[in-house]
Amino acid sequence: MEAVSTRVRLRVSPGARSAHVVGRHGEAWKVRVAAPAEGGRANEAVVRLLAETLSLPREAVTLVSGHGARDKIVQLAGLDSTQIAQRLSSAAGKERRS
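RE: above sequence
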């Protein structure tokens, strides 16, 4: 059986008060991270946020493109697009209720 791997578009806002999933942003998911966009710190924060939010090991989240940009593409191993959408929607909903 072949392992599931899915690519997801992100719109990242670095330097936020806290790290969280905001919700949909067109075809992408908008996320905020507290780390500044310096020296790859925001990229690492995005990877950690997604791994935690999606209950994946850190190694299952790979930044594919957009290393120096706000628009990024990440590859997620172990989840299909439906599972990812459900978990990110749930995380975005929790933030709105807080």
